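Narrative of accomplishments. A recurring question from our advisory board has been how the design workflow behaves on a single, concrete structure rather than in aggregate. To address it, we present the structure tokens for one chain from the evaluation set, followed by the sequence designed for it. No filtering or post-editing was applied between the two.
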């Protein structure tokens, strides 16, 4: 067999660029599988072009403008003698004007709590009215602060970076477990904040952001979902061509499944591909679904530039998403294997 030129070119390109991401052997595994299926079926392999997954929208497209209180009201409240005076004073400081999203969320929740406490400490109706107006404004804009402190932070871009190859094909993924736990806890906090509980703890969120900065599992999973969908489709097309065309087996009782085909089904698909697909499914449940929830429960706040990307690459229930496409590719592939094995009177495992 003439060697596939891609195996000769890609290593040279990687050496030249010195920047190829680790692929965990997944692309090679899938290409070899397609070629193995083609050989076993006595067909010529054909490889579909794999369009890259687009990057998560840039930060300027994800961050929402945070409306502030009228400066006159802020000046008024900063002079009133309760804890709110100090909260507003911090916000008006030089550092306060350039708050990072998480610190801005902390400020917004502190403001609401301090303003509510101030109301109970004064009998002045004018002050109470000003405070109630300020609280109403802050409550209405709190979802924006929550969004910016989750999907607007820089760290999430690293979690979704596509430059770090594919999801690992083996090993105990402790990073996945930590990411899953962190996002799940953030989801609980976000739900509480959106339900009006401004006392939700936020001290741990910075640690979750640091983990997003250090790990790249979400982007790796997106890369793997796209790759597996396309290469499974290539192998399925070969199986379909044999099933619907010239049968590999005549259907005679004495005819056995060809040895090469049995090997590619048992070792290539059963012990290799299916195991990796199971890892992808478990990782999707552990990380992608919680991230889907993190976005979906903020759908009313979600900026339009982010919404389309979310629908295609994070929404696990959307028919056009990479995740539903992968499920369809898996189902179609299994069906074609069953049809072929039935022709050869072999029982699918």
């Amino acid at each position: 067999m003439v060697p596939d030129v891609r195996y000769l070119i890609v290593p040279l390109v990687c050496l030249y660029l010195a920047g190829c991401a680790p692929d965990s052997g997944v692309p090679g595994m899938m290409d070899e599988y397609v070629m193995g299926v083609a050989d076993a079926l006595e067909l010529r392999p054909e490889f579909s072009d794999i369009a890259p997954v687009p990057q998560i929208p840039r930060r300027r497209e994800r961050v929402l403008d945070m409306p502030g209180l009228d400066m006159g009201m802020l000046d008024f409240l900063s002079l009133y003698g309760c804890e709110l005076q100090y909260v507003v004073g911090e916000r008006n400081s030089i550092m306060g004007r350039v708050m990072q999203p998480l610190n801005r969320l902390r400020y917004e929740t502190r403001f609401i709590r301090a303003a509510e406490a101030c109301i109970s400490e004064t009998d002045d109706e004018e002050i109470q009215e000003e405070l109630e107006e300020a609280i109403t404004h802050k409550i209405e804009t709190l979802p924006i602060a929550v969004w910016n402190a989750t999907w607007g932070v820089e760290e999430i871009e690293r979690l979704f970076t596509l430059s770090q190859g594919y999801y690992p094909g083996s090993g105990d993924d402790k990073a996945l477990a930590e990411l899953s736990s962190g996002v799940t806890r953030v989801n609980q906090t976000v739900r509480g904040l959106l339900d009006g509980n401004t006392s939700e703890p936020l001290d741990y969120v910075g640690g979750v952001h640091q983990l997003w900065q250090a790990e790249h599992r979400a982007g790796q999973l997106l890369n793997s979902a796209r790759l597996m969908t396309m290469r499974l489709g290539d192998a399925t097309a070969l199986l379909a061509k044999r099933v619907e065309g010239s049968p590999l087996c005549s259907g005679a009782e004495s005819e056995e499944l060809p040895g090469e085909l049995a090997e590619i089904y048992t070792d290539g698909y059963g012990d290799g591909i299916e195991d990796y697909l199971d890892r992808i499914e478990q990782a999707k449940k552990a990380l992608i679904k919680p991230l889907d929830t993190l976005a979906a429960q903020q759908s009313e706040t979600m900026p339009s530039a982010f919404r389309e990307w979310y629908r295609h690459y994070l929404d696990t229930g959307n028919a056009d998403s990479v995740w539903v496409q992968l499920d369809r590719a898996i189902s179609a592939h299994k069906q074609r294997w069953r049809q072929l094995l039935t022709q050869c009177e072999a029982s699918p495992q």
